[in-house]
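Model: Ready when you are.
Researcher: Fold this.
Model:
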Amino acid sequence: MAETTSEKKINPMLKMGLELGPIVVFFVAYLRLRDQTIEIGGTAYDGFIVATAGFIPLLILTTGILWKLTGKLSKMQVATLVLVIIFGGLSVWLNDERFFKMKPTMIYLLFGGALGVGLLRGQSYLKIVMEEMMPLKEEGWLLLTKRLTAFFIGLAVLNEIIWRTQSTDTWVYFKTFGLTAAVFVFFMTQGKIFQDYALEEETEEG
């Protein structure tokens, strides 16, 4: 699915539903299946693996619908989908939940690493993705990118600590609610950057 330049406008609630729906369905499916073992083709799978197996095609479907309706997918959406297919697929194929639990680590390392490479080149790759949403001066973009790079790497480390030391229940709650809340809180606390480095709209005196 390639990123296109023209984006069609759709209902924001529909867009949010397509983006968050698979995560919610995974969470509900896991809660219902976590104490069950299901035998498929002579192999026993626990509830986590079964919920993961359902999550992958659902995410492919909703991402495809989003692409069809908007005519555009961000690089982050494409990268997330690819990593879900790879790591989720490995978990199901090898019947090993660890691969799917590693997926957020890989995603955040990928995003943080990409932003870091841009910073080493004196550029803000974040600006390329979000410039239309948040018009900022170059200094503001670089500062926000540095903070977001450190934030993504921190989330990657945190995910590793949680899935390696805590129960599957704890990790699922962290994945469903903790990571989403952390990203929301991060941007909410960057208000001073948006205030200090906002581009002033040009006005014509007449």
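Researcher: Now this one.
Model:
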Amino acid sequence: MASISSLGAGSGLFTNDLVNQLVSAERAPAELRLNQRQAEAEAEISAYGKISSALEALKEPLDALSDIDSMRAFVGSSSNESVATASVDVSSASRGSYSLDVQQLAQAQSLASASFADRDTTAVGTGTLSLNVGGTVTDITVDGSNNTLDGLAAAINDSNAGVSASVIDTGSGFKLVLSADESGTANAVQVSVTDSDGDNTNASGLSQFAFDGVTSNMQETVVAKDAIFNINGIEVTQPGNTIEGVIDGVTFNLLSVGTSVVKVDQDPDAVTERVQAFIDKFNELQDVVSSVAGFDSGSGVGGVLSGDSAVRSIQNTLRGMLTSIPAGLENSPIRTLGDIGITTDPSTGKLEFDESLFKDQLQGYPDSLTTLFAETDSGDGIAAKMAVSLDGFLKSDGLLDNRTDGLNKTLENISDQRIRLDDRIASYEERLIRQFSAADSLIAQIQSTGNYVSQQLAAIAPQSSSE
């Protein structure tokens, strides 16, 4: 704020304090209006942000319920989990009971060589080692760079032949151990040799590692086996103990020989949790709307967005969908959310949930519940429609985004008005200072003239008295 330190020196009337008071009085009404408008715009932006966040939170459970598999929650149980367990793919599983009689577990083959005095200095022979696993043959060249147990093990592991090699210290020597990567007879390992010494079958040189069905210079310490089990009286043979594809959507995990009954049943609790998540997020949205757009009739005070058309549009759209009947359910015993235990409290707009009724209807009419919520061949269910509507509200050029953009432009306009106000007040202050300085000078001149006249009169007065 501009000022002149000597302002008022001549008259004592037009001081800097007076200028400051007049400037403040001129600024205050306009600044108050701008502050109020800015506070209102910022409060509305915050309120729209809260609604947007609540809609985002609601969209997640809606997307889950929009999936056609949302009502298809199944769980597998085993009467003897030490024999077998089961996991379920909800997209393809169905109810069922399966009697298992596990007669043999699958296991991967292991071979062990003869004993060697050391692992990294004694030469084991040179030539070519051919590993046949499941009909795939991998040749490994053994030469002066790798013709020790350690070198041979490293070469086998680097070959990705479906075999793992290691060197074991038995306490009385070292042995090369080969283990098939996969269980089952089809993955058994055969080792054939082209020995540099010209004899491919004897127990010296590279041929001491031969194991090809004719020559067995390595010891089979673990025999390759397939899993053998009966399922509902039908014998099944598999190379592994994790059994997939025998029953659609069900994976059996065989753990030991014995019997067990595996059941696949619908899991109503899992489905109920999905629906409860939707209800919780919907009710949280109602709390947010009530806080920012509600009206307290007792105090006569409304929220910052009370009466806002955008909020009314969102609420009316969602509430309308809650009572809609999706295509394909016109003649179904389940047509609306009310038929499955989801009702609206008219005083709060919140949803109430009768879980017991829901679970009964889920057990009796799972396909109808899927149609009620999800996107199916019949059309979009309630959750699917809501999710689409929320996408429209939340998109970058959607209803909420447009409102927020408009308020941000209001804030920019207020900022511009503050700059113009500062310029106007500065000009007003300068004008006051000029006017007050001029008045102060004039008063100072008048005072000076008065003092001169007084002095002249005082000088004349004694002469008049002496006469």
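Researcher: Key takeaway?
Model: Confidence is low (pLDDT under 50) at residues 1-5.
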